[in-house]
C-alpha cells in the first residue's frame, strides 16, 4: 500500500497531479489548496498518500500534511461521505478551522462547504465531535514541530545549513522542512540536536531515498 510519495511534478490538472517517481507516473488527487502549493513542472514534491483500492480501480489521494490525511480518513467514516466529498470539504477549509467548527457544532459554517447539506453537516458534528479533538491537538503539534525544527534553539544553525543544502540540491523549501521535521520526530529531540550538518544531511537524504 502506497503511504507517501517523493518525486517530481510531471503535470498538473484541475484536481490532480502526476508525480514522476523513478520513471513511474503516479496520478494523485489533491485538494484545491494543495494544488496551489505545488511547485512548477519538474519541481520536487512530497505527499502523504491514501490508497483507495476497489475492484475496478486504485486511486491515490495526496496531502502535504499528515493531519490533512488523517482528517480526510476521519471524514470518510461519516455515513454518506466518500473520498471525493471528503476532498471537496478539505478544499474549502483548513483542518484546524474544520475541527473547531465540528467541536462547536457550527452547522452553518459546514454547509458553506462543497457538497455539504444541513443533514450531512449535522452528521459530521454528531459523529466526529469526539474524534477530531485528537486531530486538532495533532495539528498544533505538527505545526509547532515544523517551526521549531528550523527556528528553535539547540542546533538551529546546523538545521539552517542543512535546509540551505537541501534547497541547493533542488528540494523545495516546504519539502525540505517537512523531511527535517520527520527526521527530528524519528530520532528524538536530543539525538537530533547533537547531529552535525553532514550527519543531518545523511539522515535527511536517507528519508528522501
Main beta sheet strand tally, sense and closure? 5 strands, mixed, barrel
Q: Based on DSSP secondary structure assignment, what is the total number of beta strands?
A: 5
From the coordinates shown, what is the CATH architecture of the largest domain?
Orthogonal Bundle
Helix coverage percent: 55-70%
What overall form do the CA principal axes indicate? globular
Q: Tell me the strand percentage band.
A: 15-25%
Tell me the radius of gyration.
18 Å
Derived structural class: alpha+beta
Strand order of the largest sheet: 1-2-3-5-4
What's the CATH topology label of the largest domain?
DNA polymerase, domain 1
**Number of helical segments with 4 or more residues:** 11
Low-confidence regions: 138-155
Any idea how many domains?
3
The CATH superfamily title of the largest domain:
5' to 3' exonuclease, C-terminal subdomain
First and last CA, distance: 17 Å
